[in-house]
Write a structure and sequence with these properties.
This protein is α/β, with parallel strands linked by helices. Helix content is 24%, strand content 25%.
């Protein structure tokens, strides 16, 4: 199969859409705003997908819905009509991205164990002969952990107009590559960092949320440089934390104007709520370290 041709210029290959407008009737409160260890579910999921794609990230919400604070780079768009299901949100997200990307990873807001490696493996499976990459984990299709070609917008809008609102109706009309558990785990990074495929574990009821919230945070490798290194002992250690702020606190630092961090060696960051995942490495240094 031929690989997608990367576009040179303002068009990115990948984008992401996070659907935050569900009614959360079984949870009893909006999932998007649920606490996730000092952050929120929506802040975590939008941050994870932002780390996984090279283009825009769009959060789709219900009309009038209040969302928790997000990274300013996340774009917000409202569903055309509330309560019409995931295809309505997909249409709003695809329209917002427009011609700025070729494919978009689509996620629900209630998957706090989502790993960047999973997202990259899904969008990386695209070829010219495919319109949708649909993981089928445990034998179940995952339309809200899938990737869609941006050119599907017209078809999605046609289905919505005909009240054919189930994702299965879309899959009947386009070219779908289905990825089993085994296919996902053939990706080395997924096998190493998300071997249980927790990326698709969603939270429907309070008990689901409580179980997930009680899980141990991922292990994060840390290093402190220069004046931030401890006077005795090793400057390197492994800690457990869900966010950059959590890592800083675990090693006795504050993310203020005097401290910056690099994530995995190449991204300088300072946002306390930046979500982290298994396998991440964070290095801290003083902002005046070069003086």
């Amino acid at each position: 199969m031929n690989q997608l041709v990367f576009t040179i210029g303002p068009v990115h290959r990948t984008a992401a859409i996070v659907l935050a407008g569900g009614r959360s009737s079984r949870m009893g409160s909006p999932k998007a705003a649920l606490d996730w260890h000092g952050s929120t579910l929506l802040r975590r999921v939008t941050g994870i997908v932002a780390r996984s794609v090279d283009g825009p990230v769009v959060a789709v919400h219900a009309p009038g819905q209040q969302l928790p604070d997000l990274d300013p780079a996340v774009e917000l768009v409202a569903d055309a009509r509330e309560g019409r299901g995931p295809l309505e949100g997909l249409a709003a997200g695809l329209a917002a991205i427009g011609d700025r990307a070729e494919v978009a990873y689509v996620s629900s807001t209630d998957v706090p164990l989502l790993h960047p490696a999973f997202v990259r493996a899904v969008v990386g499976a695209f070829t010219n002969e495919v319109d949708v990459i649909l993981p089928e984990i445990g034998g179940h299709g995952q339309p809200l952990a899938a990737a869609y070609r941006l050119g599907l917008l017209g078809l999605v809008e046609e289905l919505i107009a005909a009240d054919r609102l189930r994702p299965a109706f879309l899959f009947e009309r386009c070219r779908v590559l289905r990825l089993s558990d085994q296919a996902m785990l053939r990706d080395g990074a997924v096998a190493r960092l998300d071997p249980g495929l927790g990326s698709v574990s969603n939270l429907n009821e309070p008990a689901d949320y409580e179980r997930a919230h009680a899980l141990s945070a991922p292990e994060i490798r840390t290093e402190r440089f220069g004046t931030l290194a401890p006077p005795a002992g090793s400057a390197r250690e492994t800690v457990r934390a869900w966010t950059l702020g959590g890592v800083a606190a675990a090693v006795g630092l504050s993310l203020d104007e005097h401290v910056v961090a690099t994530l995995n060696g190449d991204q300088v960051r300072r946002e306390a709520e930046l979500p982290l995942a298994a396998g991440d490495a964070v290095a801290f240094m003083a902002t005046d370290a070069g003086r």
